[in-house]
Amino acid sequence: MSKRYIILLHISFWILFALVPELPMIFPDRKYPLYYYYYTFSSQILNVLNFYLVYFLVSIDVLNTRRIIGNFLKILGAISFFICLRLVMMVVVYVYLAGFDYQEVTIRFYHIVLETYYSISFTLMAVLIKFMIDWFNTQKQKSELLARTKTSELALLRNQINPHFLFNTLNNLYSLVYKKSDEAPSMVMKLSDIMRYMLYDSNSDKVMLEKEIEYLESFIELNALRMKEVRFVEFDVGGDILNKMIPPMLLVPFVENAFKHGRKNYKLPGITIQLMVTGNRLNFDIRNYLPSGTAINKDQQGGIGLGNVRKRLDMIYQQNYSLDIEQNEDEFHVRLIIQPL
What we know:
Elements: H1 3-19, H2 23-26, H3 34-57, H4 68-97, H5 109-160, H6 163-178, H7 184-199, E1 207-208, H8 209-224, E2 233-239, E3 245-246, H9 252-261, E4 271-278, E5 281-289, H10 306-317, E6 321-327, E7 331-338
Parallel strand pairs: 2-4
Antiparallel strand pairs: 1-3, 4-5, 5-7, 6-7
Helix pairs in contact: 3-4, 3-5, 4-5, 5-10, 6-7, 7-8
């Protein structure tokens, strides 16, 4: 839900539940005591405080039932706090503003019932509106994620399984077979693994991190064939990668871009990749050297474009990731951190 509609919703609520009930006082048909105005004004201030304290205090995640107890305790605490605060406010208004003698002011049972009613009403209304907004945003997010996932999968298949990649790979394999190289069978198997992973394993929302790493290793080896230099890519993996999950083919666009735009004839290694897992934190760092005078759009270079990768990260991880892209005259550097995985 956009900010404009959220603001309109809040304005409509206060007109309906705060302004309309007080119309008899705004346009009185008889004279009300001055203390009555003091009491009404003070009560409305507490209504606003009550509502927005609960609204911003309670974090409603419709997909996370584990927060129910915490939210319930917060709501119960807010109701109790404002009941007491309203009763104190009533005494202050009557004694210090209206000038009543302290001994004449008595908190009766119906006062407690009335202030309890106001506190419960505005607390529950805050929860209801927060829940409605969060539910709407969650449904919208799920729809966008589903649509974007389908689009991304198609785009990934179009750009990863493309004639150019297959042509180069098959040419390299042909050369190995022609020379009767011992590497030919293993390269054929790696190509087979890549095709299987992209067509079948990547259909899931998430895959094991070990699978993604195996795919990256095969992808790197096949692409490195045309470099005629085994040291062109340095790929280091560290930390506890077992039993960790990651969206499939999330990292390969960065590697693909490094090969596509990297400088081929430069100091080794031409591409350095580091993948480190610490607890539930993933650090992925990749650097490649650029040809002289190269100007690359950081969000749209190669593959499905780093802009689309960032959107995919936004949809899946929201605020739980950081993606830094840096470029200077000689080097392109991408640093991705995801926490938690």
